[in-house]
Amino acid sequence: MQDEILRLKKEKGVCILAHAYQSQDIWEVADFIGDSFALSKYAAKAPQDTIMMCGVRFMAETVKVLSPEKTALLANPMAGCPMAAQIDKKSLHG
Fold first, then answer.
1. What would the 3-class secondary structure string for 18-73 be?
2. Tens-place pLDDT, residues 39-81
3. Nearest 10 degrees: Cα torsion 32, 54, 8, 29
4. What is the CATH number of domain 2-93?
5. Which in 40, 45, 61, 92 has the greatest CB count within 10 A?
């Protein structure tokens, strides 16, 4: 499977970014591994037009905000962040 991912990544011109908390098998196909800040900086300078984020949704959203001309994909659309999920509208105004 790893060989197929690497082949498709090259063929389609996709940059794969992986958060440091991802597993070894994800790291092995990633172009860059780092924390949220480092990943967003790397995505902005990556030569590829398509960025595949292996992390939580807000990280892919950050890629799109910083690089609106690029296509930002999320490897797992269900990936969430427990900390971010704790914030609600009421607590922001409280």
1. EECCCCHHHHCCCCEEECHHHHHHHHHHCCCCEEEEECCHHHHHHHHHHCCCCEEE
2. 999 999 999 999 999 988 888 899 999 999 999 999 876 665 5
3. 50
4. 3.40.50.10800
5. 40
The pLDDT value recorded for residue 65 is 94
Give me 44's structure tokens: 């902005």
Query: What ranges do the domains of the chain cover?
Result: 2-93
User: H/E element holding 14?
Assistant: strand 14-19
pTM for this predicted structure? 0.82
Please work out, in degrees rounded to the nearest 5, the angle formed at the alpha carbon of residue 11 by the alpha carbons of 79 and 51. 35
Q: What is the rounded average pLDDT for all residues in the chain? A: 88
| Distance (Å, whole) CA 88 – CA 94 | 10
Please check the confidence at residue 91 and state whether its pLDDT lies above 90: no
